[in-house]
Amino acid sequence: MSNPKKRKWLNAFVPHRLELLLSPAWQAVPRPLQKLLERLEIEHLRHGGYENGGLFVSYEQLVLYGLSKRTIRPTLALGEALKLITVFRTEEVGGSNIRPPNSYGLTYVPMKGKGTPGDEWKQVTRDQADRAVDAYRQAIAAGAGGSSEYAQKSKRRAA
């Protein structure tokens, strides 16, 4: 018989509460952000539902899951703008040219060590969600490296 501790992830789940599903933030989610959230939820479930806030998913893993590499950065920024995800950026160690990995958290799921979710997405109004999605679309149209203000902010955050 298999070790029950190793199979905890089989019983893990991610709740999508009615309030979340009807929120302006969730209703505004375009398909790339939906795929990103799904991939982060998969990572969360693979850790038995206990590692939210310490979820590590590489760009390569996101591409393998179906996101276009050129849309990942703007999609992450949109997820943060809609307050559905938190990106924990790790500072560079020493003078290394290798960028350390970021970790991610889903705001609608309790963070590691917390009993309840932060639910930051509740703060997002319909107008804020619409503006964030419009800026996201402009960034994608500009090639995520174009001249849009959103793309420039995204680049500054990543630098």
Structure description:
The structure is a single chain. This protein has 159 residues and is mostly helical. The protein has one domain (19-158). 43% of the residues lie in helices and 5% in strands. The chain has helices at 18-21, 24-27, 31-46, 59-64, 69-81, 126-141, 149-158; strands spanning 85-88, 103-106. A two-stranded antiparallel sheet has the order 1-2. α3 (31-46) packs across α5 (69-81) and α5 (69-81) runs antiparallel to α6 (126-141). The longest helix is centred in the first third of the chain and has 16 residues, at 31-46. The mean pLDDT is 86.
Number of strands: 2
Q: Sheet with the most strands?
A: 2 strands, antiparallel
Name the shape in a single word.
globular
How do the helices and strands follow one another from N- to C-terminus?
Answer: HHHHHEEHH
Sheet/helix structural class = mainly alpha
**How many distinct domains?**
1
The rounded distance between the terminal residues' Cα atoms is 49 Å
What's the tally of helices? Answer: 7
Query: What portion of residues belong to β-strands?
Result: 5-15%
Q: Characteristics of this structure?
A:
159 residues, mainly alpha, two-stranded antiparallel sheet, 2 strands, globular
